[in-house]
Structures are given as C-alpha cells and as structure tokens.
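Field log, afternoon session.

UNIT: design team B
ACTIVITY: writing a sequence onto a fixed backbone
BACKBONE:
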C-alpha cells in the first residue's frame, strides 16, 4: 500500500492532543476491498491508550468524496441523536467522524486524496466469518434495526454517491460491455461463468422494475451489509455498531438483506477456491431472516418480505457479475491479493446463485414462517 502522505494526513487530525500523548503505531488494518484503512495507536502518560481508524478514501471509485462525507456525517449525527433519545451509548452504537484541527470532516492531502478518522470503538470484535448462528441472528437484528432507525430520515437529502450502485439491470449492461471489451485470454478462462451470467438476463431487472412501478419503496439503505461491516461487543457478543457507511444511499431493503446473505450465509469464504465448500446454509438463512424481520419490526411491506429470497439471489448474481467484469477488464476496482482472485470471487457468487435456485422452495418456506 503506497501511502506516502499518511503522516501529512495524521498531522491534520487532533489525534495526539485528544489523549495528550504520542502516536506509537500506524499499521494497515481490516480486509476491505476499496479504501485503505489504518489503525492508529496513541499512548498517553500512565499507560492510557487511545486508538483511531484512519482511512484514505478510494478516489477512483468515490468520485465525489465531499458528498459522501456529507452523507456520512448527516447519518451518523442522526443515529447519534436517536441513540441518545433511547438512552444508549452514542460513542459505541454508531460511527463518529473526528473533525480535523481546522474543524472539517475530512482532510484533502497534497496529492488530492481524501482522508477521514473515526475514534476506534473499543472492546469490539469484527467477524470475517459467521462463528455461530446466534451471532448471525444478532447481526440481522442490527441491520434490520438500522433500517428501522433510518425509516424517517429524509431520503431525498442523501447524495447518490455511486449512481445505480445496486441496479442489477444496469450492472448486467456493464457486464456485457466488460465481456465485449475485456481481455480475450481472461474471457476464455471464464467461459462457463460468462455463460452463466448472460443466461440470467431476464432476472436482472426484477427488483428495480418493481421499484420503478412503485411496488417497492425507496428507503435509506446501507448497501454494503457484509458481516465484517458490523462490530460486536467483545464481552457480550451482541451486535454493537454498523460501520462502513460509504454507500448509505437511497436503495432497496432487499439488497441489504441479500448482501448479508450472500456473504454470511455462505458455507465458504467469498474467495474460496474449492467450490465444493460453497453453498447456502439454510439454517443461517433462517437465522438471518428471523433476525432481520424482528429488527425491521414491521417496517417492511408484505411485498418486500415476500421478495427476500429474490434479494439474496440477485445480490449474489450482481456481485458475481461485478467481480467477473473486473477480472475481464484488468482488476481495477476490487483489490486483489493473488492471480485470478476476482475470478475466484465471481465463481463463489455464481455457485451460491445456483445453490439458491435449487433451494428456492425452502427459502420461500422459511420467509413465510417469519413474515
Ligand atoms: P472498507 O471500506 O475498506 O471495508 P471499513 O470501514 O469496513 O473499510 O473498515 C475496515 C475495518 O476496520 C472494519 O472491518 C473493522 O474491523 C475496522 N473498523 C472500522 N471502523 C472502526 C471503528 N470505528 N472502530 C473499530 N474498528 C473499526
Ligand atoms: C466492496 O469495501 P468493502 O470491501 O466493504 C464493495 C461492495 C462489495 C464488496 C464485496 C464501494 O466492499 O459493493 O459488495 O466489496 N464496495 C464498493 O466484498 O464497491
Ligand atoms: Mg468494510
């Protein structure tokens, strides 16, 4: 990670003054595919320590970082007030954006990169993989509750930071273009996967079509509801805080549900190479469905609830097309750590789609049980 301006960025924030101490560690942190994340550790006299998360935002992907930060500050302040009203701890229940020494919400460095800092939420854990059904259920309640807490947030005040982010029909067109214009040698490695994706064109627009007809509501959604975007309390293992708010935008609740399922209810990692290890775990699907509906507490319409399985399938399908499109066009979007990494990721997503198709009746039955 080439971050030569990191010291310049650190100096812009009141990190050391916050604890009257000195910075003793700055190291790469987390497993995100987009931004560069660092952990900062400050040591104060008397062994008191304070940690921060510093992030350099990906400017190739986030074309308007100032609008993005405006969304983030607006939403986190709103959540903070709601938590205070509910008598909960606003420093642990939501992300908080630390202002620069000049009172801004971000720092723009001399190379035109944007940086931001969050106080580290202590005594928390972040899971890359579901460890127990209960944790996954808790994460579902938290994501459902996030949806509910933002139900009255004025949607129209949010900027659409990435247009058509979860518009599977538009992602399908991008994918077709990637197949036409991408690397031919890579395409020959992925013939089967390309055919799989192209053959499902008629399903891509199902949810956005219903939105356009007014049959599904536009909501404030998170849009990146992977399990590793939630922090759990280290002692109680209760879900504590939803993080990674870059893509909070107007969207469909079904895609939030679906993203959690494709990531957390899979029996394999997102980049597992042995596809025999990848399938939809129906027990986890059930735990998440139950928790999400409880967390939403009646705020979803009957139509939304009935379409939850479609949200899961389309999200895995869309994500697979995004990974595969990126593989075909040279891996410029998602960070990769090995050869064919994005192809491996696409394969797991399409394996999940196929598995969901074979378990469709059971997925519907589970949703009916909790509606
Ligand atoms: P990315 O967009 O790269 O996924 P995230 O915002 O999800 O970045 O942060 C990466 C990781 O950093 C998270 O998975 C989590 O482990 C950790 N993290 C982020 N913010 C905080 C915070 N305020 N407190 C504690 N850990 C955090
Ligand atoms: C990216 O940054 P991260 O890893 O939380 C991506 C998501 C994908 C996800 C796949 C802004 O999320 O849309 O679903 O990778 N974020 C963006 O793991 O494109
Ligand atoms: Mg993340």
């Amino acid at each position: 990670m080439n971050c030569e301006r990191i010291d310049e960025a650190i100096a812009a924030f009141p990190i050391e003054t916050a604890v009257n101490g000195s910075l003793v560690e700055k190291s790469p942190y987390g497993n995100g595919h987009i931004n560069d994340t660092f952990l900062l550790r400050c040591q104060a006299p008397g062994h008191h320590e304070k940690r921060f998360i510093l992030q350099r935002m990906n400017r190739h992907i986030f074309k308007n970082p100032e609008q993005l930060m405006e969304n983030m500050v607006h939403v986190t302040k709103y959540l903070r007030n709601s938590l205070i009203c509910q008598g909960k701890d606003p420093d642990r229940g939501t992300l908080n954006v630390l202002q620069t020494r000049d009172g801004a919400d971000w720092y723009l460095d001399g190379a035109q990169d944007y940086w931001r800092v969050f106080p580290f939420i202590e005594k928390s854990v972040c899971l890359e993989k579901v460890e127990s059904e209960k944790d996954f259920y808790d994460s579902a309640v938290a994501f459902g509750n996030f949806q509910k807490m933002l139900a009255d947030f004025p949607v129209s005040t949010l900027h659409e930071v990435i247009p058509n982010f979860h518009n599977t029909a538009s992602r399908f067109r991008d994918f077709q273009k990637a197949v036409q214009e991408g690397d031919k040698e890579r395409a020959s490695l992925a013939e089967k996967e390309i055919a799989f994706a192209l053959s499902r064109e008629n399903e891509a627009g199902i949810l956005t079509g219903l939105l356009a007809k007014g049959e599904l509501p536009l909501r404030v959604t998170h849009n990146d509801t992977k399990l590793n975007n939630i922090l759990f309390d280290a002692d109680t293992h209760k879900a504590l805080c939803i993080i990674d708010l870059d893509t909070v935008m107007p969207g469909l609740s079904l895609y939030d549900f679906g993203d959690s399922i494709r990531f957390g209810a899979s029996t394999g990692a997102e980049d597992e190479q042995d596809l025999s290890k990848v399938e939809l775990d129906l027990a986890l699907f059930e735990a998440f469905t139950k928790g999400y509906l409880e967390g939403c507490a009646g705020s979803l319409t009957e139509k939304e609830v009935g379409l939850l399985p479609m949200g899961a399938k389309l999200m895995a399908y869309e994500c697979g097309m995004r990974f595969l499109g990126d593989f075909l066009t040279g891996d410029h979007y998602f960070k990769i750590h090995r050869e064919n990494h994005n192809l491996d990721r696409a394969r797991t997503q399409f394996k999940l789609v196929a598995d969901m198709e074979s378990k469709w009746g059971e997925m519907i039955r589970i949703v009916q049980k909790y509606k």
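LOG NOTE: The mean pLDDT is 95.
NEXT ACTIVITY: expression trials, pending approval
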